[in-house]
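Cross-posted from the bioinformatics board.
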Amino acid sequence: MIWLVGGILLTALSGVPGLFFQRHGDGGERVACLLTLAGTASGLIAVVSTLCSGHNINLDLIWSIPGATLALHLDPIAAAFLLPLFLVVATGSVYGLRYWPQREHPGNGRKLRLFYGLISGAMILLLTARNGVLFLIGWETMALAGFFLITTEDHKKEVNRAGYIYIIATHTGTLALFAMFALLGHTSGSLMFPDIQTLPIAGSTLIFLLGLLGFGMKAGLMPLHIWLPGAHASAPSHASALLSGVMIKTGIYGLVRLTSFFAEIPVWWGWTILLLGAISGIMGVALALAQHDIKRLLAYHSVENIGIIAMGLGLALLGRSYHLPLLVSLGLAGCLLHVINHGLFKSLLFLSAGSVIHAVGSREIDHFGGLLKRQPWTGVMFLGGAVAICALPPFNGFISEWLIYLAAFQPLKQAASTLGMAVLAAPALALIGGLALACFVKVFGITFLGEPRCNAAAHAHEASALMLIPMATLLAACAWIGLLPTTIMPLLRGAVAGWSGSSATTLAVDTFAPLGWVSMAGWLLLSLLIVLGLWLHRRSHNAPRNIGTWGCGYRFPAPRMQYTASSFGDFLVQLFNFGLKSERHGGKVSGLFPSGAHFSSHTPDAVLDRMLFPLFRGSAWCCRYLRSRIQNGEIAFYLLYVVLTIIALLTLFTL
Amino acid sequence: MIELTNPLLLAVILINFFTLGSARLGACIRVVALQGALLALLPLATHGMSGHALILGAGALLLKGIFIPTLLLRAIREVRIRREVEPIIGFVPTLIIGALTTAGAFIFADFLPLIAEHHEGFYVPTALATIFTGFLLLITRRKAITQILGYLLLENGIFIFGVLLSAAMPLMVEAGVLLDLLVGVFVMGIVLNQINREFSTLNTERLSALKE
């Protein structure tokens, strides 16, 4: 227990000593990095010792706040969320030493590190809290620290706008959670988390809907993802990695934890989450395809992956409703493993994207090109992350999506029932996977292959070792789960048992999912690739190195003739035009010798820009109109309002 | 008791109608003064010749019947206006609305959850009708001086309510209400002069520069 508390405190306060160091010196950042590493190591010791000993650790201290106790609890469900957190936080803080050094950012470096530590500590706290008040304290600290991470560069207008949207969204969610915990406390009798599967189903509808709103807002499920793209694009890359890799998962954690409290799960809960997950997945990846900003694109992929995670959770909930233990264990194992995996490969992608942005100085994919020759290691890291996020073997994304596929096929074993519809999750998942692959072919191709499209890209430099080592660590973790999936199984088995309430032995996921074979196939594939690569390398080492990429038969190809991000994705974006409604400007040429023309395309967010902004603008106009009518400056009217109020009150009290 | 109070209250209602229908400011002020004087009799008629009732009646007579009307008469002499012209809602419609609200007050009073002894007599409906008449004056008239009359009527309505409770209500509260009224009228009197000096009219519609 002391390790866990120590970990929380060390991580949360890691940025504080830095405040007392010199503004232009690098002492503060080193201390912060060391403290973060010590804190995450200490937390890791707590988690590993819990997992090895097999029984959960508890802490209960009296606290003077009414309804609150300092109750911490570490079980396999929390551990599944904590493990990627520790890795991402530690690698991110090392990466930050070179990506956002104090010397280059004297104005906001200290602020960034202070809130980076605070958000990490708050997340560990909320993932281990067993009391509603303590959870909300952790939640709100996390939300506010997240705001300051997003607005690190608060002198930029679009950053402030993104932060503003984020703070509105997160507070809406927190409001729902306050109501949810109040109702939960009313149902269970105290603000402590109830034991698993103890709460009656009566009165749970409102709790579930409030939880879905609050947690779904944080997780970024499709209609509630409004804050996510802007926020992830605005934050510094290692902060984006933390936000996208870990913070949005706290929403999933909340949903997993909340659904574990109820004795029975209504059928519509599972369907709702499954459907929302499928929508998020498909629309998320379609929106990602249409983006030109590499961090916005990755942010939409977070929406997509949250959708996949939610589909796993939805299948597990359906399994609970229909009493199918196999569906429960496969769905939840896939959900939790994808939480871990997404944390790893999305951070890896954000960090390597950050390395590219650091070298080129732009976030536009169309400014990159040919970077594989200039940043070979970054390119390899990005490729690894891209393979993992596209769910291709031998990396980890494949394992978790495979578990969800297996879960999606389980309903077929049942005799004809409405549950059979759940098998449609499999084609949805396949569609998501295919589109994700197309999207990352686009990103990798435009960014790393071809010729540089701007001067900065032509003179890009490789990232320093302190940036590459964190990426390599994350890539190794991705490969480890992908190649040795059996090592992660005990954790998932414990988490599934802890969630569904049955004993761990009856729910051996790996007996139904032959992960040993998968791991074997992964090794085989890897060795095949290595052999093939070596053979190609030997064959081509006499070939000239300095020739350009094939120029489609043009005599004098220029870098601007290459495929752009927008032209590469155009075919697929057109297919999804019913939901994306991309805006295209210009691009028409006429005559035999046309003069210069411009073309640009832009895809606004389907929910935020198309629905919420017009809605809010409309209601603001209505309110202004009403105000100018009601508050018109005529004293007679104000007196009339007084009379009407009196009459209304009198009538109300008489009736 | 009832024999004396009911004619008093009916007279109060008639005076309400008169203020709603009349354009002559001088007459309106005198009539409201008469209403104040009638109301001064009301505590005596209701509670008999007790000390409390005497003080209440004397206070009401002095303030509402003599002092404030004198002030107002002097004010209209100084600002030289006689008539309320062009009200926001015309005199006949105001009278009709006044009649409707009075009828409504009588119907409404039956539904109010009152103790049995307050149900008999016209106290509650008259009080409500007077309050609404005051509001009606405030809403429909433009001249500041008529609005003061509206406030006076409003206070008279509250006073009638207060009479019902005056056995239970301490003297201090009554005195407070009367003092409030006095201060209100003073302030309005000052405002009146200022409006007149600034705009050379008493229309309150000009006072809308501070709206958002």
